[in-house]
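agent> call fold_tool(seq_1)
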Amino acid sequence: MSSSGVIVYRAVNMVNGHTYVGITGGTLHARRLTHASSARAGKPWPLSSAIRKYGLDMLRFTVLKECQDRGTACAEEKRLIALWRPKYNATVGGDGGSYWTGKKRDPDTMAKIFANRKVPYPRPASIEALKRCGAELAARRRRKVCCVETGERFPSCVEAAAAHGLKYMSVMSVASGKRTSVYGKTFRYLEN
């Protein structure tokens, strides 16, 4: 963070005179390097494209105003963008917005985005299916279980796990036959 709060700055292209107005909570030098990094990463923003075309050295960065808080800096950035209408600003300012703020992608692009979206796990077909899965899990947790080695009986896997210092899912896995034992202990469901 800069010592005085938030900086409102301007970048001027020395070749064609086009400008950019922005804000930063850090130093102007650090913000300049961030713009350069965005350009190297191939970001589609107008300023990034200008840096790729003309080079970072062709842009002169200057501090316009130092504000005490971000809200004041955002308001000043919006005011200057409305006044000067800089070529390299993609938004009206004050939002730190993305390139797509106020724009719409074409339907083909949206279709590709949704087609390539990965879902981390299969979702239940309905709320009822989700409730049913939860009810089945709860019923399995409530089933009576015994420890084969000690002969102890427990009202549920949760109590059996607590008594032996185990995780209840491990006890359930052994009791249902998915695992043979957990830390040398074998558990079996009892008939109700």
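agent> call fold_tool(seq_2)
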Amino acid sequence: MIKMKEQEKFADESDRASALEAAAIDNGIEQARAKAGTLEFEPTGFCLNCNEPLAQPKRFCDKDCADDHELRNRK
């Protein structure tokens, strides 16, 4: 976030607004990068798409189930 003293160096309201917008975008990018490293859905012992039992701690049976799950969750 831009502090008051930093805001004083901008020429006008438009420059201040642009700086605030850029700071908000940078913050959003940081949060997205931090979240990208975490699993959205944890393995449960069952395929998260078709609910078939899985022997290993995986999230999906195969790539088709993973793709189908991703496609439905994007909507």
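agent> summarizing second result for user.
Helices lie at 4-7, 13-36, 63-74. The chain has two domains: 1-38, 41-75.
agent> awaiting next instruction.
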